[in-house]
Structure formats: C-alpha cells, structure tokens
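Quick one, T. Sequence first:
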Amino acid sequence: MATKKKRVLVAGTFDLLQPGHVYLIEEATKLGKVIAIVGTDAIVEKIKGHKPVIPEGQRLFMVQHIKGVDQAVLGHETLDFTEIIVEIAPDIILLGPDQKPDPEIWMAMLADKGLNVEVRQLETRVNNFSLNSTSDIVAKIKNSENNG
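Structure tokens:
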C-alpha cells in the first residue's frame, strides 16, 4: 500500500515572482504535496503597509502554474491566519527564511486550535542571483526610473 503524501503549506504575497519563491516551493515539494496560500491585496496592505504590485487574481494564477504547486488558494480577509490553516489541515508548514513568527510560536498557536502541525523554516535565502527578493526588484525598477 502506498503511503499518503504529506500536505505541505506555504504562504506569502508572491508578488513579482522571484528566485526565493521558487526555492521555497522546491523545498516544499521535497516534503510532500504543496498547497500555497496567496495573500489577498487587503491583507498584504495591512501587513506590509502597501498594496502589492500585482493584483491578487494574477498572483494566484501565477502561483497555480508554478511547477511543484499542487494547489493554490487565495487567503482569507482576516489577520487570523490560523483559520485557513485549520481548513487546509496541513501536516507541515514551511516558512521562508524571513517569515514571522518563529516556528515555535506558530506551533503553539495551532495547538491552541487543536492542530498538531509541524512548522519548519528555511534557514537561508537564495543568493544565486542579484535580484533575490521582491523588494530588490522594486528598488532596481525605482533606481532605473530615477536614472532613466
């Protein structure tokens, strides 16, 4: 009998897709079936203080078509991220190296909701390219506009 693949949850804004996003998903595929939550425009604005560059529907479409993503869904319009995690019921949550809070805090929050979820975090960022983050890409665009 085949063993059931673990459900691995990744989440983020996924604005201006870049190597860090691909790296996170590649690492998640090594752990099991990948489910990606794409943050809504409203939630991203609440958390980051600005709207994403790319609208949520387009970001969702792009993530749905990344190799290794088995399912991608749009997040909820609430800052209580445990709600959608309870719905998805993953076995593992894989955080990017810069995502907060720490895995131990996530596991405690989820345990309070009755979920026993393993939370892991990538230790390092991708450094193979000069533009390894959305903020790096935005800064380069702004710089090129100013030096145009």
